[in-house]
Design brief:
The complex is a heterodimer of chains A (about 550) and B (about 800).
Chain A lengths: L2 E2 L7 E10 L5 E10 L6 H11 L2 H5 L2 H33 L5 H15 L11 H13 L4 H42 L7 H51 L20 E9 L5 E9 L2 H4 L10 H9 L4 E8 L8 H7 L10 H21 L10 E2 L28 E5 L8 E6 L15 H15 L2 E7 L12 H22 L9 E6 L5 H14 L16
Parallel strand pairs in A: 5-11, 6-9, 6-10, 10-11
Antiparallel strand pairs in A: 1-2, 2-3, 4-5, 8-9
Chain B lengths: L10 E7 L18 H9 L13 E6 L4 E7 L3 E2 H7 L7 H20 L12 E3 L6 E3 L4 H4 L18 H4 L6 H17 L9 H11 L5 H8 L3 H6 L2 H10 L10 H5 L5 H9 L18 H10 L4 H7 L15 E2 L5 E3 L13 E3 L2 H8 L3 H4 L8 H9 L7 H6 L1 H17 L4 H8 L8 H8 L7 H4 L9 H7 L8 H4 L1 H17 L9 H11 L4 H15 L9 H18 L1 H9 L9 H5 L8 H11 L6 H12 L1 H5 L3 H9 L6 H14 L28 H6 L4 E2 L1 H10 L4 E5 L3 H6 E2 L4 E2 L20 H5 L3 E5 L3 H13 L5 E4 L15 E2 L1
Parallel strand pairs in B: 10-15, 11-13, 11-14, 14-15
Antiparallel strand pairs in B: 1-3, 1-9, 2-3, 4-5, 5-6, 7-8, 12-16
Helix pairs in contact in B: 3-6, 3-12, 19-20, 21-27, 25-26, 25-27, 26-27, 28-29, 28-32, 31-35, 32-35
Classes of the chains: A alpha/beta (about 550), B alpha/beta (about 800).
Chain lengths: ~550, ~800
């Protein structure tokens, strides 16, 4: 046997020579090149290969037993030899200092520190984390009611303030309007156009001043509320801990109470999967997307309870909202709703959006240099805050390359003060209004939808609402035919993704809501709702008949 | 000491995360990559088979949400690390150290034989029984199950005991473990801890420096201020350690060579003597004499929840998922996430699983449940007394009842030990139920499998023309199951399929064979031979000739028989299906070709086949009817299109009812009714049986009702005449001349079959006379019997059949059953 010194030290090939006597007692030889390092699972295959060189009779003569034995010991010996040689080569490099030792030391240290808890620089749980746990514990205790009461009271204060602001601004507006009207009437009599211009400027400043004053007041109040609230929660949890341990386990399912009755709605239970069937709920409804993100404490509703219970659980609610690609712009009405009360758990929506804006900039400069898509989850840590100066969301459009997300990308905001969603996925879609186009299943928006389902699965979002037509409003030229085609595409893709999601190893989507625009006609709604049971196979009712009563 | 009285921890769990595949990548076959946690699960199965006195047995690998893997294994006493910490100041004696040294080397040696390396050998993973007499390696399979660490993000092994070549990137050399072992021994002998205060980077530097030194031990001794102890060391031992710590692996001994070293002579002797353990007066609980795999199974049934135990210890931290959400996700899958939380890091703590409640719960069971004596005369009544009450309960409840399962598991384990001599008893007990833990071997026993090493001789590798189809089918076969979707599962399934094809040159690979093989592989994942032989026996028993290249004749006959039996048991349904031309060819071929394994998930197939294994080749037909029966209301209200749609994706079937129904029908059907010429005859043919070539396919296809043999009629007449209604279609004259007692004479010539009502026959109380009985139409003119039986089916009369060969055959029955006036 000889060694093929093929230069490559990661593997080498050695020839195995097997001498045997065939059924006529003639000396025979079988040979095979075997590659090292060796995977033990291949042994039987090699035996087969060697046997196939022999007369078929030899298999019947049990030659395979002896052959396997010899091959095994050959492989064991050569495998060990290969490893030892390989090690020797490495150690020689070490002795001759041919390799960068410091690199090894550095990499090893980083690896151990990054991945093993034992060696990691321990960071305690973050404040967010502690607060989340405290809140979750508290919310599952008798204090729930008090929490909600407080939240409502806080929301009322903010609500009153905004109302106050609105009314004052309006009164101001009216009075200014009157003043202006009277001035205009007097134009060229007692006043000049210059006077009017001056007045306009003055009015503007006053209004601005009033608005600013209220806004800063609001901001201060929200900050104050948030602090007070969080302190209170933390203080409560200490007490509750002494009284009773956690009463309900994590992950209770928050059911969805729909407080604002959507105009039309239909629900189905479906089974997906070819052999093993998973059960999901499908609800098709027509509503304005902002209704799903309405202020939580606006009216007396049971939803506050549900949202609070679900907030830190592993059954979150998410909504997909389409947004054009002009920077990190969210739906204006949703921002307004989110600002109706203090966001106690996360940053106020504006701040979240601002941060995301910054990250988009950082991201864009990053993706230009580094290869994109190098990995999910950890490719770009949250620390890449970007060196871009803290430009506000309203900064004027820059002429040169504007960093922005593209169709199919999405950004995520988190909420505790909206009625039916903890998480909003802002999916970028640039479909022009008033000219419905045709898309296929490989369209970026659809792929973005898939990414959303994947993210949902990874982060325990078990109720998800998606716009079934990938549009939030009806328009003139969205024909019935177009709507049917579009809905069918979305339904089918959603179904495919849901089947696929079974293998993602995350949380299972328990409810998928298909959202249709609220201005959809009743007949079209019925048509589209009728498609659901055809696309998703609706579970047959199980009828259990007692077979024993047949006497 | 109070602590020693406690029953030692015998089970424990560790957990870690698998590496997440970056973004959306596909494998070479265009399908999405298998998650690493599934690959780990598949690889780890092999470890469960390792049983050695120096290795902790692996019991279970669980895949949790979000790529978490939990490994359950045996645990023993305390770890060497704990032992040293606990007895600080009190050092181990040199012969105790040698004992440890020798036994660990013994453990390594077993692993070498199985082509495994440890690579995470450290005092934490060396367990010792409380009296220090027995040593077991723990967590030694991490390297193997993670494919040398490729499936996990973290490094494997404690850096302090790592050999220089491993630090430089070599992976998989057992000699690196020999180094680690020697390093641990150096620590013990010198009573030191290696580099206790150094940072990782400096430890790494030290090890690399050792890689360039000539005398590792001396260097270590000097560094740790124990040069004197080094000099005072036993020369033999020093020699051994010197060799184990040779820089070049080539010069290090293999574990086996370590064990043969002369310094272990006294150890070997003392181990061989094996003094009986000092009896502390308390006998070990009986349960601990049972195999650990059974104990773990029972622990789970008793409400043991590994996840909950880990959570309690803080190893599974319930972090709010909302906090980890990404802020931006781009189309290509890249994302901006908040910083990874530390709860995803590798935490190597070991969580004990408490056995005490289980032991207590089972302690009041009598000893004969623990160790059933099959041949004692009191065996049957004792068993009866214990289990009969529970056996009234539904199967699902029985399978979760811990005492009952314990009883069944112990009983079947004993029966399997005695197999094949206990085959008959095993069959009897299996007809009650089969304990899930032992289902694989029990099925094999029911199929008369006797392992004979023939599997290794079959060529499973040479390329054949069916390879392509097999490659396509495997990634689509029961992939919701973690075992079957793992790369190891795919490899095994491929080998099994190829072996089956090679072993049957007369047959071809029909799509569906993969589904048929899946349950056997699932149950015997670590025993391919048993899986193969079970399949090997299963196919001729239930699917004889189905895998011929041209199997149309067999399938046609089978489906015609299915139609006949449907008419026999469900006349109205059969009538309806026939009227809308919804023939079995349209839906039932995959049912029967795969014995339903293509249409149901594994957990349902298992219960279905539990019963199937006990029946003969006709049993599947009744399962088919039971399924139709369950969907009866829907089917009766559906037209052709709805039926096609309904069966294109079979709705959820309640398996328990299906099993009970099919069994009822199976038992209520005389054997000859199910006669097929392609079935393997169970017994030699009797002259009164239906002969092999008697019933051709064309007969089957034209006759709506099945034929019954004279033998079965005779049997019914003699033993249960109340279940038989014989309708004699001959003329009144012939009837009065000679007839079967209690038979009903309806001369065919006089009846009008136009109206499909029984009343139209003008036979008083005919319906009452037929109800609940097997209705046999007898005539001398076969066509009459066919037409009349069709009429009865149309009237919805249950269990109508035709006497094969007509009235005249009754004359030949001895002793005579006919009476004549």
């Amino acid at each position: 046997m000889h060694v093929n010194g093929n230069g490559n030290d990661a593997s080498r090939t050695v020839e195995f020579v097997y001498k045997y006597k065939d059924y006529e007692q003639k000396d025979c030889v079988a040979r095979l090149d075997i590659k090292f390092p060796f995977d033990d699972e291949d042994l039987e295959e090699l035996v087969t290969q060697l046997l196939s060189q022999m007369d078929p009779m030899m298999r019947l003569l049990d030659e395979n037993i002896n052959l396997e034995k010899e091959l095994q010991s050959f492989v064991d010996r050569e495998h060990q030899l290969f490893l030892d040689d390989h090690a020797e080569k490495l150690l020689n490099q070490l002795a001759n200092e041919e390799i960068d030792l410091e690199a090894i030391v550095r990499d090893t240290e980083r690896w151990y520190k990054d991945e093993l808890l034992q060696f990691a620089d321990r960071v305690g749980p973050s404040d967010e984390d502690i607060f989340a746990q405290s809140f979750h514990r508290l919310v599952h205790s008798s204090s729930l009611e008090e929490i909600l009461k407080r939240e409502r009271a806080y929301a009322k204060v903010i609500g009153d303030m905004t109302e106050h602001m609105d009314s004052e601004v309006e009164t101001l507006n009216n009075s200014q309007q009157q003043e202006m009207d009277s001035q205009i009437n007097q134009l060229d009599i007692t006043t000049t156009s210059e006077d009017i211009n001056n007045l306009l400027a003055q009015q503007y400043t006053t209004q601005n001043f009033v608005r600013k004053r209220y806004e800063s007041e609001l901001e201060a109040m929200m900050g104050h509320q948030k602090n007070e609230y969080r302190d209170w929660i933390t203080s409560q949890v200490g007490q509750i801990y002494q009284v009773s341990p956690v009463s309900t386990p994590l992950g209770n399912r928050s059911s969805m109470f729909v407080s604002q009755q959507p105009s039309m709605e239909e629900s189905f239970t479906i089974h997906l999967g070819s052999q093993l069937k998973h059960m999901h709920n499908i609800r098709i409804l027509s509503a304005n997307v902002t209704e799903l993100c309405s202020p939580l404490h606006a009216e007396e509703s049971l939803n506050g309870l549900n949202m609070a219970l679900g907030l830190y659980s592993s059954s979150l609610c998410g909504v997909v909202v389409l947004t054009p690609s002009i920077q990190a712009q969210a739906n204006k009405n949703i921002i307004k709703n989110a600002n109706k009360s203090t966001e106690f758990h996360f940053e106020q929506m504006d701040a979240q959006l601002e941060k995301i804006e910054k990250q988009i900039r950082a991201l864009d400069t990053n993706t230009d240099t580094t290869s994109s898509g190098s990995g999910s989850g950890s490719s770009m840590e949250g620390s890449v805050e970007g060196s871009a100066e803290g430009g506000s969301a309203q900064s004027s459009p820059i002429k040169r390359h504007v960093p922005r997300l593209k169709t199919g990308d999405f950004f995520v905001t988190k909420h505790s003060n909206l009625s039916q969603s903890h998480v909003i996925f802002h999916l970028i879609s640039d479909e022009p209004i008033n000219s419905p186009s045709e898309i296929n299943s490989r369209h970026p928006v659809i792929l973005g939808l898939r990414n959303i389902l994947k993210t949902a699965s990874r982060h325990d979002i078990t109720t998800l609402t998606i716009p079934a037509l990938l549009r939030h409003e009806m328009s003139e030229d969205m024909t019935v035919q177009w709507c049917i085609r579009r809905a069918e595409l979305v339904f089918k893709c959603a179904k495919g993704f849901m089947i696929e999601s079974a293998s993602w190893g995350g949380a299972e989507l328990s409810t998928l809501q298909l959202l249709l625009p609220d201005d959809i006609s009743e007949s079209l709604f019925t048509t589209l709702a009728g498609m659901v049971p055809n696309v998703f196979r609706v579970a047959n009712p199980k009828i259990l008949v007692d077979n024993n009563n047949k006497l | 000491m109070a602590s020693s009285k406690k029953v030692e921890t015998r089970l424990c769990a560790v957990t870690f995360f698998a590496k997440v595949h970056p973004g959306d990548v596909c494998g070479s076959n265009g399908l999405p990559l298998t998650p690493n946690s599934i690959a780990i699960l598949g690889r780890a199965q092999r470890l469960k088979e390792l049983k050695d006195e120096h290795l902790c047995q692996y019991l279970d690998v669980i895949r949790d949400k979000h790529e978490r893997t939990i490994v359950v294994s045996e645990y023993l006493g305390c770890s060497l690390e704990d032992h040293i910490q606990r007895s600080s100041g009190h050092h181990l004696e040199i012969n105790e150290i040698l004992r440890i040294f020798y036994q660990v080397a013994g453990g390594l040696n077993v692993l070498v034989k199985h082509k495994l390396v440890v690579h995470n050998l450290e005092p934490k993973h060396i367990l010792m029984e409380s009296d220090g007499s027995r040593i077991k390696l723990f967590n030694y399979g991490l390297h193997h199950m993670t494919k040398g660490g490729a499936y996990v993000p973290f490094p494997i092994g404690n850096i302090r005991y790592m050999s220089p070549e491993r630090l430089m990137g070599q992976n998989g050399n057992i000699k690196s473990d020999v180094w680690s072992l020697a390093m641990i021994m150096v620590e013990l002998i010198f009573h030191i801890e290696l580099w206790p205060k150094l940072k990782i980077s400096n430890v790494a530097r030290k090890i690399l420096a050792l890689g360039r030194s000539n005398n590792v031990i001396e260097k270590l001794a000097r560094e740790h201020q124990c040069y004197e102890a080094y000099l005072a060391m036993d020369k033999d031992l020093r020699d051994l350690l010197d060799r184990c710590l040779s820089v070049l692996p080539k010069q290090r001994p293999l574990p086996q060579e370590v064990m043969q070293h002369s310094c272990f002579q006294s150890v070997v002797e003392s181990l061989a003597r094996k003094e009986p353990k000092p009896d502390d007066g308390k006998p070990k609980p009986l349960l601990l004499h049972c195999p650990l795999s059974q104990i773990y199974h029972l622990w789970q049934l008793a409400g043991g929840d590994v996840q909950a135990e880990l959570k309690k210890e803080g190893l599974i931290r319930s972090e709010a998922p909302i906090l980890g959400l990404p802020q931006i996700v781009r189309l290509n899958g890249s994302s901006v996430c908040p910083k990874r939380s530390q709860s995803h890091l590798m935490d190597d703590r070991v969580v004990p699983l408490k056995l005490q409640p289980l032991i207590q719960r089972l302690s009041r069971l009598p000893a004969h449940i623990y160790f059933p004596l099959l041949h004692s005369p009191r065996f049957a009544p004792l068993q009866q007394q214990f289990a009969s009450e529970l056996q009234q309960l539904p199967l699902i409840i029985r399978e979760r009842d811990i005492e009952y399962q314990f009883h069944r598991v112990r009983l079947f384990a004993t029966l399997l030990q005695g197999y094949p001599h206990t085959a008959e008893l095993l069959q009897r007990e299996a007809s009650v139920d089969i304990p899930p833990l032992l289902r694989g071997p029990v099925w094999a026993a029911l199929l008369d499998v006797l392992p004979n090493c023939s599997y290794t001789k079959i060529d499973k590798f040479t390329a054949t023309s069916t390879d392509r189809q097999i490659e396509v089918d495997i990634p689509r076969c029961h992939q919701y199951d973690e075992l079957l979707s793992s790369p190891d599962g795919h490899r095994k399934l491929k080998r099994l399929l190829k072996a089956w094809v090679t072993a049957h040159p007369q047959y071809v690979y029909w799509q569906g064979l993969d589904s048929l093989t899946a349950p056997f592989l699932y149950l015997n994942f670590n025993n391919e031979e048993l899986a193969f032989l079970s399949l090997f026996k299963f196919i001729p028993k239930y699917l004889q000739w189905f895998f011929l290249k041209d199997n149309s004749a067999i399938i046609k006959e089978y489906l015609s028989k299915f139609s006949q039996l449907t008419a026999f048991h469900e006349p109205l349904l059969a009538q309806h299906l026939a009227s809308i031309s919804f023939i079995p060819e349209l839906f039932a071929i995959p049912w029967f070709l795969t014995m339903f394994s293509h249409v149901f998930p594994l957990h349902k197939i298992l219960h279905l086949w539990d019963k199937l294994m006990l029946g003969d080749s006709s049993y599947p037909l009744f399962i088919g009817i039971a399924i139709l029966k369950q969907l009866k209301t829907t089917l009766l209200n559906s037209g052709f299109n709805e039926c096609i749609l309904l069966f294109s994706d079979l709705p959820d079937i309640v398996m328990e009812n299906c099993v009970i129904e099919s069994q009822k029908m199976y038992e209520a059907t005389p054997k000859s009714i199910t006669h097929r010429q392609h079935a393997v005859p169970q017994q030699p043919l009797h002259p009164l049986d239906i002969g092999i070539g008697d019933v051709q396919l064309k007969h089957l296809q034209t006759e709506q009702c099945p034929r019954i043999s004279a033998k079965d009629v005779q049997h019914l007449l003699m033993h249960s005449s109340s279940e038989l209604a014989l309708i004699d279609l001959r003329g009144i004259l012939e009837y009065s001349h000679v007839h079967v007692p209690h038979s009903i004479n309806i001369p065919f010539a006089t009846v009008q079959l136009g109206e499909q009502r029984l009343d139209a026959l003008n036979v008083p109380q005919l319906e009452a006379q037929l109800r609940g009985r097997i209705v046999v139409c007898v005539s001398n003119i076969h066509q009459h019997a066919i037409e009349f039986s069709n009429f009865l089916v149309a009237c919805g009369v249950l269990r109508t059949c035709i006497l094969h060969k007509g009235f005249n055959v009754l004359h030949s029955i001895e002793p005579n059953i006919l009476i004549s006036n």
